[in-house]
């Protein structure tokens, strides 16, 4: 029962990661389309105990039905009706990159690709089109991933009728049990995998590989990236790949997990029908030896700092990572074991809170964190990540070690523990309150994770009950002892990533970790003495002025006496959850271009600056044991505050947002910290062609409007806390305010809370007239050329065609139809660039149409590839655009985009989030309630002639704009 996943995702404790995060560095999962997780088998059931629970006393989750087929295939199935009519299937094979020989490196991942290419029931290249015709979107609904320990095939099947279910299990069984490996298939797929490899190379990938090789020196994981190597992939043959498949793809090495809106017995019947006859010869091979961390001879066991590395990467910020490593051991997932995990997490949470508090002040580090992971069945590790504030990494290491030393020298106080226990309580209680809203895909993934880490699953009530009964165990002495154990290990291995040669040696790094430090007793965080009841009111409460039905789903439009408007939709579709959105002001449109630098800084610093007399640390204390958020972002024409809260916390959540507008605080430190983070991060955006595009396209596609630019170091250096206040103080007072509440709340209580908070706001200043109407640059015959500092074999490119904006007249339907045209374009570009020439792994085409602006929309095709393939991309994009204008798309192409879109909208519309996204702002613009009625027909029905007409109107060669990102010349 993996408690740690719940605890580490506590909604009250978001952790901003300014440096290279160890958990990312060590994950090493290679997906077919996007990253995710992994899973393997467990022991067979004994004495009637479900196979997942053998050796455990954790109460089983009764929603799951477990079993084992005669041939050894294990399964877990359950009914889950979220969203309705969807079934999520996971097929897990215990065969990852650490199961390969040296000559087979990359084969586990290559087989994942080849299984989608050609199999018993699917002709070559038919897998993706087939799933699309069934309504599944490739890359999200249909996916696969390979990790060091296993390969997982994933499918979320919408509209899972009996015929669709039967066809799905049939096709999956052919992919898993009988893929077809041909010389042509291998020859076609290897270049695609190499294109995927190119998308991952660069400074960050080098750091990942070097860190992995250091931390796991002497173990297979040190050199077993799932992507493989160029040499082994190019040497792959259909026979050698089949040999790996035949060895590891076996019934007794496979688990099938299914959760969805279907009778579990029907699902079990499909598993038996399509996987029950799977037979292989021979006994199951022994699992490879994954080894264990070993200290070098002569290492001091009291401070076992071993091998170290200094990695010079000019485009990456300074980061010090070190791992305290212990052997990985198989554990029995018992209640006592999980209670120990909770005490471990308490100790780490205390340290992380102390580190974050220091970082918000005048610390030598921008950010630091500690965490514990059991990694790929290879090591049990305590991981420390430190991002220095400036060049002096030694002081940053010393200061972080001093905080850790204090935790290792003196037990925490009862008050500190009580605060963290309150945080854990809400983290465990929220899943209890919202368990009816858990999607089938989520519970399927959770069980998949549990199989991989050799643990069990438990329902939220069980988890919360065990936690509550364990609270007496959380004593200062117990937390102290567990913390001490977490910072002991067989060996400690550090790595310094630095942009400057000569910044330190491996011996300097070892010395920084072995030098004595004084315990930083001053790092301990004060106990919580703040209460919302003690805070000053926002102002004189207002009253309800008007309330009227919006004419859709029982949603109300209300207005308070001070002019604040709101949308209220009280419903029990998602018990225990309330979505809150606050819209105010004028967004990017009202920021003076000369003050553009303060826009991005605000997305980090504005909420961290606090409220009234309360700092962000004070707000964190107020939020202890509560589900409260302070999220902020900037849109084209509006500023937005957002939260996901629960009924018990709604009034206080509204107070925080209203007080931010009425009583803003202007601490300097959050601005200085945000500025330092932005300066450190800017150069790292040069490390790959795609990161350059991601950094510069928002600005370039607005024809160089500086408000959308990522500020460079020179611009950031000019930014000051005083300037930040000068810009944002008037912006917080401007424009109408709308509050939208969708979810599980009492209407009368919500209105009373609104009257006390947003109803108490003073009169708002008028928004200035801006005439804001962005547009993409004019046509260029030759692409704009940007450069990156990454690998010389990688480049990226984009071609964009201007469209439009707004929602008046036919514009709204046209915006939705353009999404379909973009998806048809994507199918063709995918086939041209990936399938035919293997030049790109995942080309993407999408449509952007700003509904709140009169212009600025575009269709854009983006790709990462080799520099020599850039002409092929631009030629392919021009050819596809011209052909779509000259000839209507086929009926099959239409079906491949409309059915997935229909299913996507149908599934999304079962949750409050869909309606919030579509109707947000509807209190000010009631026309949105009419607009949503046509979204399904506009977005999932079209004709070949309509697509051709849009292509003729917009995909014109004399209007497109192009950019390419190439390696910077040496």
UniProtKB/TrEMBL annotation:
Keywords: Hydrolase, Metalloprotease, Protease, Signal, Zinc. Belongs to the peptidase M16 family. InterPro entries: Metalloenz_LuxS/M16, Pept_M16_N, Peptidase_M16, Peptidase_M16_C. Residues 83-199 form the Peptidase M16 N-terminal domain. Residues 237-422, 741-897 form the Peptidase M16 C-terminal domain. The keyword Amino-acid biosynthesis does not apply. This is Insulinase family protein. The keyword Zinc applies. It comes from the Bacteria. Residues 1-35 form the signal peptide. It holds the Pfam family Peptidase_M16_C.
